[in-house]
Amino acid sequence: MTQYLLSVPMIDGEPPRPPDDMQRAYERVARFNEQLRSAGAWVFAGGLLPSSSATVVRADGGEVLVTDGPFSESKEHIGGVWVIEAADLDAALAWAIEATRACGEPVEVRPFQENPGG
Amino acid sequence: MPGRPMEEGDLDVELVFRREYGRAVSVLVRVCGDIDLAEDGVQEAFTIAAQRWREEGLPPSPAGWIITTARNKLIDRLRREASRDDRQAQAALLHQRHEPDVELAVQDDRLRLIFTCCHPALAPAAQVALTLRLLGGLTTAEIARAFVVPESTMAQRIARAKAKIRDAGIPYRVPSSAELPERLRPVLAVVYLVFNEGYAATSGDLLVREDLCAEAVRLARLLAALMPDEPEVTGLLALMLLSAARRRARTGPDGSLVPLREQDRSQWDGRLLADGIELVRFCLQRNMPGPYQIQAAINAVHSVAPRAADTDWRQILTLYDQLLSFDPSPVVVLNRAVALAEVEGSGAGLAAVDGLPLQGYYLFHAVRADLLRRLGRVDEAAAAFERARDLTDNEAERSFLERAQAAATGSPGE
Q: B87-96 and B62-80 are packed helices; what angle lies between their axes, rounded to 10 degrees?
């Protein structure tokens, strides 16, 4: 079994979706999360607050630098993630298709390294 | 095997290599689970074969010999490098060492491999390169030449695709019947793209391109044998056979392009035509139409006309209408307009063509030019021919368009 990150890209400055649209998406995502749990594929999931809430820290020798804002200067940031277990990419893609239908946004699928930390 | 004179033994090994490389690699990938390892093993086995077969002649089953030798080489290698985390592969190899039915599973393995190579998670260019490399046994240099990219670029493309297969966990299996229609599409697209690159190449080395056509037909025959129940596989094979049949008549002695209606039909390859037409009949009987089958049927209608003037354009127009319902793209509308012009007149054809969003496509301008010429609108025709010529890199097409332009300006109307 490999773990895959399913991430949902968000683009800064895009107009927010209407509240009832968002509400329906939340409900679908909750149902999708239930499916993941009952299939034993669930590892972790969560949505993120806007990238403007991010802070970057950097340890450079003895110095620690704390800066405001997200690391990436692009307009695209991760809006939420799932971490799932799947036998292979096809299984992961099948979950990702459910995920994109649930949240209504594109979903990027990316495998984790087999042995975390080497 | 470049670099030394061709001997009879070399020819045999090379033939076996082209024919059996994909077969051997696909078995080894299943057994050891790693494409690079599998390729290394198979290449090593062929190196040994080149020496031994020259001395001892071909073994009764060259493919079986290669597969067994490659597997033994891999076991040796994995034992030597046992510190690596290949123990699983090693165990699998040892386990299968004496597997008696290895030859029987071979066909399925090639099908697995082509679905892996054409996985939708790989970019189309990578799908094509991997398929030619792993199933066709073409060298990276040959593929690079065929697609007119530097060899280093092609090597990188192939290496990246293999790494993605390994890292992302692209599975090595034939999709379930529920997934099959979706997953078959890129497979057929890759085969057709290989064929078209060879058939109507935009540029590149002539010999390599003929190889590409043959390779695409070979892949399609393999797919048709492995998936006899898939109508579009049959359709694609028929389409390619019928197109390939006209190859020789398609270029003049000076290498310039000869359009269908001016081709010497006695130059068409009767055997390929007969094979293609039989497959089209089979598709019609099965009556599960799809875009490749319909295009094959259109080709078949052209093929059965003894002279260009005998072409049943009404039937072709009907087939294009059917094709439009599957694929309502501007290119299909353009091709349909050619048939429409034959049935209802050049004016109707031109009306169907004008305004299509194909300004950058040389055939759009070539078709318009021809219709304008027939309508006697000489200046507009000349301008359209010129536009078409500027948009193609292919020398044969360019010189054809130049001649057509000259003829149009010289003799207006029909």
A: 140
Measured between beta carbons, which residues in chain B are less than 8 angstroms from residue A87? 169, 171
Best mutation target among B34, B88, B167 (most A Cβ atoms within 10 Å) is B167
pTM of the model: 0.82
Does A78 contact B at CB distance below 8 Å? Answer: no
Which value does ipTM take for this structure? Answer: 0.85
Nearest CA in chain B to A1: B169
The tokens of A78 are what?
């991760």
How would you classify residue B391: left for phi > 0, otherwise alpha for psi between -120 and 50, otherwise beta? alpha
Cβ under 8 Å to A: B residues 107-136: 119, 121
The three-point CA angle B123-B124-B129 to 5° equals 100
CB-CB neighbors (< 8 A) of B167 in chain A: 111
**Tens of pLDDT along B327-343?**
999 999 999 999 999 99
Residue B155 contacts residue B199 (beta carbons within 8 Å): no
Distance CA(B135)–CA(B149), nearest Å, equals 20
Angstrom CA distances, B240 to A100, B193, B196, B268, B391, stand at 38, 11, 9, 14, 25
Across B91-179, the runs of DSSP E, i.e. the strands, are none
User: Helices B106-117 & B206-226, crossing angle to 10 degrees?
Assistant: 120
